[in-house]
Amino acid sequence: MIWRRLLRAEIRKLTSTRMPLAFVVVLAAISATTASAVIWGKDFDGTKTFVSTAADQRSLVAFAANATVIGALYGAIAVSREYAHGTVIPTFLSSPRRHRATTAQSSAIALGGAVIGLLGAGFTVAAVAASLTTTEFGFSVSAAGVVRVIAAAAFSGAVGALLGGGIGAVVRNTGGAVVGVVLALVIGPPLIVQLISDASRWIPAPLAIALSGVDAEAAGLESQVDAISAVGGLMVWALVPTVVGLWSVQRRDVA
User: Fold this and answer.
1) What is the CA radius of gyration of the chain?
2) Nearest partner of 176 among 246, 93, 92, 73, judged by Cα
3) How far apart are the first and last CA of the chain?
4) Residues 203-236: pLDDT tens digits?
5) By Cβ atoms counted within 10 A, which residue in 53, 99, 106, 134 is the most buried?
6) How many C-beta neighbours within 10 Å does residue 22 have?
7) pLDDT tens-digit profile of 174-212?
């Protein structure tokens, strides 16, 4: 009962600011950009073969990799600003057992990240389907394919939010947490692949793409893991920073 009350309070905190609206605007901008690419974009030979098959279109609407990064930024900002603004102090005063408050906060931002992924994928699918009417090709991704793309984006958004939230709990500074997300998801993975070539399948973006059901060839990847392995790999990327963040909250002073 106490944990449910804490979860409702965390959800209320997240939804009572303008931050969710800002992320919705970003999602709408990304889908509009994708639609523009379909309408005005061409291959080097002047054709639109990049949207000619169901596999190509599925690769285009697969939003899971983007959802991981955007969800991570959402989680990092949501958690780090609690420390930057000092609002975490009354939270821990009302719930001295910090692990309860922290797990409630992690659950709330994971839910928020899932919603971001779901909306981002939904917007992108709608934008691509509408923009294809301006071309000679129709929208040919199956209903099951669309459902998988949206579900993968929602899961990846939740994973990203937990990853970013863990970084935010450790860094406790909004700018630093955002930089941490960029290092973890944008700069770090290519460096890891340079050092360990076999690790290319296990970094977040290829895992999210595999979970979306996009063929490795259509995604421009040499190889990819199966869907179950992708779920496991993404959960590791989420759980490690979440546990480190929880440990940091338990061990360190708030102010």
Assistant:
1) 19
2) 73
3) 28
4) 999 999 999 999 888 777 777 899 999 999 999 9
5) 106
6) 11
7) 999 999 999 999 999 989 888 887 888 899 999 999 999
Helix (H, G, I), strand (E, B) or coil at 252: coil
User: What is the DSSP secondary structure assignment for residue 53, as one 8-state letter?
Assistant: S
* Dist CA 20 CA 3 (whole Å): 23
pLDDT at 99: 86
Give the dihedral sign, CA 239/111/177/25: positive
CA atoms within 13 A on the CB side of 81: 12
CB 128 within 8 A of CB 140: no
Distance between CA 9 and CA 87 in Å, rounded? 12
Quickly count: other Cβ atoms within 10 Å of residue 243's Cβ.
Answer: 11
Residue 158 φ then ψ, to 5°? -65, -40
Q: What contacts 183, CB < 8 A, 6 or more positions away? A: none
